[in-house]
Amino acid sequence: MRRAVCPGSFDPVTNGHLDIIGRAATLFDEVVVAVGVNASKSRLFTAEERMAMLTEVCADLPNVSVAGFSGLLTDFCVEHDIHAIVKGLRAVSDFDYELQMAQMNSSLVDGLETVFVPTSPEYSFLASSLVKEVAAFGGDVSALVPASVWPSLLTRLDERRTAQG
Ligand code: PNS
Fold this sequence. Notes:
The chain is of the alpha/beta class. It has helices at 15-27, 47-57, 73-79, 92-108, 128-136, 149-164; strands at residues 3-8, 30-36, 64-69, 84-89, 113-118. The protein has a 5-stranded parallel beta sheet with strand order 3-2-1-4-5, with helices on both faces.
């Protein structure tokens, strides 16, 4: 059984993430989308909300499941008997840090490979942080996130605006 993990923050999941997850699902028998829970970073959506959004948008991918993790990615891989990490690469600028993480992870767990998948060109500029920033200023980036995510994003940005006064 070839099992892989697609780790990330997914705050929120974008069409670029979905592209990588879908392609990973064709390369591996099973793919676990692992939502990083980093208590020190403030996120727009809670880990539970991010996982629920991912579960909904991956529902048509039968070999994809969604889980959360709060420690080291390598511990998650060992616990779930996963030997491959799939990461999307948008541009050369992603490569330095991704290579560093890949090498660190393989030094922590023997035989744990990182597979880099080049982002499809139409998503090469896409990042959750940019989507949030543009949407917060009223820009229409609805085409860049799954249809079910867009209303949740607008609602959360509204709630945040109201809370901030
Ligand atoms: O979507 P992101 O924010 O680029 O995802 C980063 C993530 C969550 C995949 C990465 O930060 C991670 O693997 N965090 C878990 C903690 C860990 O293992 N750190 C050491 C990396 S070498």
